[in-house]
Write a structure and sequence with these properties.
Layout (H helix, E strand, L loop, with lengths): L1 H9 L1 H18 L6 H39 L2 H8 L5 H15 L6 H11 L3 H13 L2 H11 L1 H25 L1 H9 L14 H18 L7 H8 L1 H19 L4 H17 L5 H17 L4 H29 L10 H7 L5 H13 L7 H10 L4 H10 L5 H11 L1 H25 L1
Helix pairs in contact: 3-6, 3-11, 3-15, 3-16, 5-7, 6-7, 6-21, 7-9, 8-9, 8-19, 9-20, 9-22, 11-13, 14-15, 15-16, 16-21, 18-20, 18-22, 19-20, 20-22, 21-22
């Protein structure tokens, strides 16, 4: 034994490598390939990752990377520090962050590049966390659909809980890390990207409103509402008008060449007419063209560089996380390696244990916008208690396994665990109170 310990001390890296190789070999050797449940779980992981790539990467993540890169390149760090920084007024900072996140109405993954952008630009931890939670959780349409499908009572409970959560969780994170945040504020002057002060605030605000509008309307989903469906039918026309306005603004205030933007517009129109059933193609070409033009311009190259930095950091982790989530829990209506009967049995009452399990499962599962409502409706039909149902609605849209992996790259392991723990604990507490006293 002494000789073995001495060998380990002299070659620690080789010992770790040997242990890793042995663990991988054993995992592959004993993998239950050929069993129906395992093979089906692998297929579910592939199906979910394929669906995510088709439905979310082009329309959600690409414009989010574009906006996050523009934050780093064009928003003055001084403006971020004044309104969202660690030393900013907390009511103002949390109010701005919560409202900004609410207006996006995005899923837990699409909000990540934007969260990373404002945090690295100088936003305080509390305000950034409020933004991170409010984007996917305080979704006005999701709350309306929740009330209509699951009942007004649980819809109101979800709305109140989500609004309170964004403020309380942001405040707790700020208090826990206030000393570290104070030190970060004092050393944040070196910045993140260039501080452009050559364009008026109104121009910058319009620039970002147009890009956010493109993100929102391109992802406008169908819902049981006449007004909502009218907008849904015109979503691509509205997106095209916003894109034209963005191009005009780039020509007017950024001095982009008209010829290059007209050429890009022609490519997008030809793609839209050639493949009318695949709107993602012209959308992706438009974004790629914008990034190519900005990369060729000395004054705007930072926009493309920062957008690429966010994409290469976030996208691989998201796809890996979605694959693992699909393997474990499957898609809505389909089972992964964990039997759905186990889930139903575990959340069948309003006890603390059932509610905590629902919060944890909600935090690990991936929900795209609005999909959590029919999932919870089906679970409640199978006997799920209303307390666990509310807990899942509060924890699920704001967290997911892929979401956690990316947050860790921005905040580090400790802050990520604290944030996820706060969401789960508060969702559990709220669910227990709601399930047993209302």
């Amino acid at each position: 034994m002494t000789r073995l310990l001495e060998l380990y001390r002299n070659n620690p890296r080789q010992t770790y490598l040997l242990a890793f190789m042995l663990a991988v070999f054993l995992a592959i050797y004993f993998i239950p390939a050929g069993t129906e449940r395992f093979d089906n779980a692998v297929l579910e992981a592939i199906y979910l990752t394929n669906w995510y790539a088709r439905e979310h990467v082009i329309l959600c993540l690409l414009p989010a990377f574009l906006i996050a890169g523009a934050m780093a390149a064009y928003i003055s760090q001084g403006a971020v520090m004044r309104h969202l920084g660690p030393q900013a007024s907390k009511p103002v900072a949390f109010g701005v962050a919560s409202v900004s996140g609410t207006l996006l109405a995005v899923c837990s993954c699409t909000v990540l590049p934007l969260f990373g952008g404002i945090y690295k630009r100088g936003a305080g931890l509390g305000a950034a966390i409020a933004f991170l939670y409010s984007g996917p959780a305080i979704n006005v349409m999701a709350i309306v659909v929740t009330a209509k499908v699951l009942g007004a009572e649980i819809g109101i409970a979800r709305a109140v809980g989500a609004i309170v959560f964004s403020i309380v969780i942001g405040t707790i994170m700020h208090l826990i890390y206030r000393r570290e945040e104070a030190q970060r504020a004092s050393t944040n002057g070196r910045g993140f990207g260039g501080d452009n002060a050559d364009k008026p605030t109104g121009v910058i605000v319009t620039f970002f409103m147009l890009m956010v509008g493109i993100l929102v309307f391109a992802n406008w989903a169908a819902a049981d509402s006449a007004v909502w469906m009218q907008i849904y039918q015109w979503k691509w026309q509205i997106t095209a008008l916003l894109s034209l306005a963005l191009g005009a603004l780039l020509v007017w205030r950024w001095q982009w060449p008209v010829s290059q933007l007209l050429m890009l517009a022609a490519v997008v129109v030809v793609a839209a007419l050639a493949v009318p059933g695949a709107q993602e193609l012209p959308f992706a070409l438009g974004i790629a063209g914008l990034m190519l033009i900005s990369a060729l311009r000395d004054s705007d190259r930072e926009w493309a560089a920062q957008s690429w930095d966010f994409a290469k950091q976030i996208l691989p982790l998201l796809l890996a996380g979605v694959f693992v989530a699909g393997f474990a829990l499957g898609r809505p209506g389909h089972e992964g390696i964990i039997p759905s009967a186990w889930v139903g049995a575990a959340v069948g009452d309003n006890s603390l244990t059932s509610t905590a399990i629902a919060s944890v499962l909600g935090a690990l599962m991936y929900f795209s916008t609005l999909t959590e409502v029919p999932i919870v409706d089906a679970l409640m039909g199978a006997g799920m208690g209303k307390g666990p149902a509310l807990a899942l609605l509060l924890a699920g849209p704001a967290l997911s396994l892929p979401n956690m992996l990316v947050i860790r790259t921005v905040l580090g392991t400790q802050k990520t665990l604290v944030y996820c723990g706060l969401v789960v604990v508060m969702a559990t507490t709220t669910g227990v109170i709601y399930g047993n006293f209302w």
